[in-house]
Design brief:
alpha/beta; Rossmann fold; two-stranded antiparallel ribbon; 8 helices; 55% helix; elongated; disordered N terminus; transit peptide
Amino acid sequence: MMRRYIGLRPTILGVCRNFSDKVDQDKKFQGTDTKSLGLADELLAAKIQPDPKEKTQEEAKTDKEEKEKVKRTLKWSFIAFGVMISSMGACLVWSCGTPIIGPDGKPIPDEFSDLPVVQQYLMRTWKGVNDMNKMIQEPSRDKLLPDPVQPPYIQPPYTLVLELRDILVHPEWTYETGWRFKKRPGVEFLLHHCAPPLFEIVIYTNEQGYTAFPLIDHLDPNGYIWYRLFKDSTRYTDGKHVKDLNCLNRNLERVICVDWDTNAVSCPRNHLKIKKWDGDMNDQSLIDLGFMLRTIAESEVSDVREVIDYYRTFDDPLAAFRENQRLAQEQELATKQIVEEEHQQMKYASSLISSFFRRN
């Protein structure tokens, strides 16, 4: 029995050695196979991945097609726009260049009637465009105010021109009320102290009439404001509406224009510039302005431009006026005190002289 087991031992060892060798061969084969499979996958992935150069060429081709499409779109858009503008121009020439037809149904001769037909239409159209441009840029009439009245009617010697926006009122917007206009403190005082017969008061503003008219009615229930001039009465220059005081039909030696905008008045010497009102309800500028204007009128100044030239040298003319008034009052009080002291001295001297004569 023992001998049988000893005989089997080499056989078992040989089987185990063969199994071990087989396992090692399988491992080597598996490793080689895995490595070969990894290389195959990389080759397959390289074949599937597109070439960057080919992709760039495709994108360039697509971009080129898109650019050509955009060019075609712009081209047809410009063509359509040109056709539209040409049609509008032709309609404008036809409507504006047609001669005026008289009651008898025949064209009324004008300065272009002797020209060729095409030139007639073009010249009439050009004249109509220039007239429209002139109507927009220039005041609506040559004389914005009527001629001064003659006696026995009263014509105030001075003309006061006031801007409405940011001088008398200020626009303000809130969530509760929307847009509204605040009335500046002292409006009633100013209008009352400058009312006729001292000044004829004119509102001359860049606002439209339908906006400014009800505001003026609310500000002036007593009718101190005689005339109202709106945007159509201004002159359009360099993109800005300017108040042309030369069209007021008044002597500029007696015209004072109150505004906060330096570039809004055609005659700088007649422009009394005051600070723009920002809605502060503690502002008292209009009260000072009322005193200043009334002082000028009561002093019967022959040329108000000389006074305005003087106050133009100050940043705040109203503050300068208040200071001058204070100095004038102090000087008046000092003069009055000197006169009173001289009067007392004369009275004392006369009493001494009378007592001396009574003793003698």
